[in-house]
From TrEMBL:
Transmembrane annotation, as ranges: 50-74, 120-141, 147-164, 236-254
Name of the molecule in the record: ABC transporter ATP-binding protein
SUPFAM superfamilies hit by this protein: ABC transporter transmembrane region, P-loop containing nucleoside triphosphate hydrolases
PROSITE patterns: ABC_TM1F, ABC_TRANSPORTER_1, ABC_TRANSPORTER_2
Keyword set includes Cell cycle: no
ABC transporter domain mapped to chain residues: 328-563
SMART domains, per database record: AAA (SM00382)
Domain of life assignment: Bacteria
InterPro entries: AAA+_ATPase (IPR003593), ABC1_TM_dom (IPR011527), ABC1_TM_sf (IPR036640), ABC_transporter-like_ATP-bd (IPR003439), ABC_transporter-like_CS (IPR017871), P-loop_NTPase (IPR027417), Type_1_exporter (IPR039421)
Domain ABC transmembrane type-1: 14-292
Keywords from the UniProt entry: ATP-binding, Cell inner membrane, Cell membrane, Membrane, Nucleotide-binding, Transmembrane, Transmembrane helix, Transport
PANTHER family with a match to the protein in the record: ATP-BINDING CASSETTE SUB-FAMILY B MEMBER 10, MITOCHONDRIAL, ATP-DEPENDENT PERMEASE MDL1, MITOCHONDRIAL
Organism: Streptomyces asoensis
Subcellular location: Cell inner membrane
Length: 571
């Protein structure tokens, strides 16, 4: 991530060295001026050092400006890359990662934690480099000016380090608490806003406020503790500095009274000290800053350490497969979700030939949706194989595979964009004509043109502009445009009433025509159309056959069908 940034970093450090050199030279000139011009009252002795001082100040300002701007550019660029890197990584993570982490907490990691590191990167880069060089130069100048005074100062310098060390552990732990609390606050806000209807309908406002206030109190405590620690450290450092300055003045007064030193030298030395302490202080403080940023970094590393469940195999990205016919086979497939106590699928075997409709049904939690996750290769099976046209799925480049196998998920997924863009994401770059054709095939053209801005109407995931059935037809249009040989439909009618369901049956049939379709559903309306029905229960395939045969068999399928017919009759 730091590739290409390192040479700019060298530039920053170079500017810092030059800046410190300029300031050291200015201090020495100040001593000169005091002894030769001020004390003697000689204007002649003033001009030359004054002109040099001015020249040095101008050069110092230019170098300071260049170094400061460059340092911010380098560190902000680093942070930008870090954020993109983490984001890219998160986008590859498997579904269970998102089920186990609260969304708000992930948001806070991608924003707040990255900012914590940003602070360290900015202050670290500018701060450490400039503090280190300044400290070295000023220390060298101090020794050159009066070594005995410098020695007295440096005897006391380790006190700064001791103070910083004492505080570092506390600062890190409080920063960690703060970051965790920040994630919790974001999570509560995000969850509450997402659940506003439930909150308002059931009068849960007070309960939600209490939830927020609990997390906010933890955050408040951490923030106050952190401020207290920093204040205490700052004040302690002030006291240490005062001790150092008094020691130097004491020794200086004694040396002047002995005639071993001039007032100019003492004043220059005192000025040098006022330059020397800030870098020493900030070097010590850097430890505290790093301690605080480490808490944020640890949370990011936790995300980065989570491996994607699947990745392109070596060589698979170069493999040219051509568009498959859509022959899907599962052989003895078993799968258990990472960390789950039981297997979700056990020795599942079935095939779907090109153009066939295979329906997978069964009770809730049977493992039906898991089949869709394996077909899209969100996960690889623990045992057995999933093949497309006889080729194991992991031999296809992931991106290509997902062009060949299209998923129509349970929840209608909407992009924050126009209706047109929402359909076009099925095939980026599709012409307006193709988009409209897809919408017509999905019976969506009519309601889209009735929208205020037609295909250019803006929609978003929370938009109440479109009904569930209309959103589902939009998703069908997207799938039509994608034109994949294999289609996986996961409960396409869930959440739709009988009328809306009836309205999507025809578009669905059009979409399925000529494609291998694997439909996961409780709704057995389309079951008579299926070439094969699989009944899954607790991860096992318990029955398979055509609708009429399974009904005649009188087993689980007949029972599921019967209970559904009863529900329809009752409704
Ligand atoms: N991310 C996960 N981590 C652990 N277990 C999971 C995860 N997702 C699903 N499961 C478990 O795997 C089993 C099969 O789940 P799956 O979602 O495939 O069932 P399903 O038949 O589609 O259910 P439904 O009809 O209710 O959608 C269930 O016991 C479920 O609890």
């Amino acid at each position: 991530m730091t590739k290409g940034l390192r040479r700019w970093l060298v530039g920053v450090w170079l500017c810092t060295v030059l800046g410190a050199l300029a300031e050291t030279a200015a201090i020495l000139l100040f001593g000169d001026l005091t002894d030769n011009a001020l004390q003697k009252g000689s204007l002649d002795a003033f001009w030359s050092p004054a002109a040099q001082w001015l020249g040095i100040a101008v050069v110092g300002a230019a170098v300071g400006y260049a170094g400061g701007s460059l340092a911010v550019w380098v560190s902000e660029r680093f942070v930008m890359r870090l954020r993109e890197h983490v984001f890219d990584h998160v986008q590859k993570l498997p579904p269970h990662f998102f089920q186990r982490h609260r969304q708000g907490d992930l948001l806070s990691r991608l924003t707040g934690d990255v900012e914590a590191i940003e602070q360290m990167a900015v202050s670290g880069l500018i701060g450490t480099a400039s503090a280190l060089f300044s400290a070295v130069f000023y220390a060298a100048a101090a020794f050159w000016l009066r070594w005995e005074l410098a020695a007295a100062t440096f005897v006391l310098a380790p006190l700064f380090w001791l103070a910083a060390r004492k505080f570092a552990a506390g600062v890190r732990s409080v920063a960690r608490e703060g970051r965790v609390a920040d994630g919790a606050v974001t999570s509560v806000v995000e969850e509450s806003l997402g659940n506003l209807v439930l909150t308002q309908a059931y009068g849960r406002q007070d309960a939600e406020r209490r939830r927020l206030s609990r997390e906010a109190t933890a955050w408040f405590r951490a923030a106050v503790r952190s401020a207290r620690l920093n204040q205490a450290y700052g004040q302690l450092v002030q006291v240490i500095e005062t001790v150092c300055v008094l020691a130097v003045i004491g020794i200086g007064v004694w040396e002047i009274s002995e005639g071993q030193m001039t007032l100019g030298q003492l004043l220059a030395f005192a000025a040098l000290l006022s330059y020397l302490y800030p870098p020493i202080r900030s070097l010590a403080q850097l430890g505290l800053l790093i301690s605080a940023a480490t808490a944020g970094a640890e949370r990011l590393v936790e995300v980065l350490d989570t491996r994607p469940a699947v990745a392109d195999r070596a060589g698979s990205t170069r493999r040219e497969t051509g568009r498959p016919d859509g022959f899907v086979e599962l052989h003895d497939v078993s799968f258990r979700y990472p960390g789950a106590p039981t297997t979700a699928l056990e020795s599942l075997t079935f095939t779907a030939r090109p153009g066939e409709l295979v329906i997978i049904t069964g009770p809730s939690g049977a493992g039906k949706s898991t089949v869709s996750k394996l077909l899209l290769r969100f996960y690889d099976p623990d045992a057995g194989s999933v093949l497309l046209d006889g080729i194991p799925l992991h031999d296809f480049p992931l991106e290509r595979l997902r062009e060949y196998v299209t998923l129509l998920p349970q929840e209608t997924l909407v992009l924050h964009d126009t209706v047109r863009a929402n359909i076009a994401c099925g095939r980026p770059g599709a012409s307006d004509h193709a988009i409209e054709e897809a919408a017509r095939a999905a019976d969506a053209h009519e309601f889209i043109t009735a929208l205020p801005e037609g295909y250019d109407t803006w929609i978003d995931p929370n938009s109440a502009r479109l009904s569930g059935g209309q959103l589902q037809r939009l998703a069908i249009a997207r799938a039509v445009l994608r034109d994949a040989p294999v289609l996986v439909l996961d409960e396409p009618t869930t959440g739709l009433d009988a009328i809306a369901t009836r309205r999507i049956v025809e578009p669905l049939r059009r979409l399925m025509a000529g494609r291998t379709t694997i439909m996961i559903t409780h709704d057995l309306n389309l079951a008579p159309d299926a070439d094969r029905i699989l009944v899954v229960d607790r991860g096992h395939l318990v029955e398979t056959g055509r609708h009429d045969d399974l009904l005649a068999h009188g087993g689980t399928y007949a029972h599921l069908h019967g209970s559904q017919t009863l529900t329809w009759a009752a409704s």
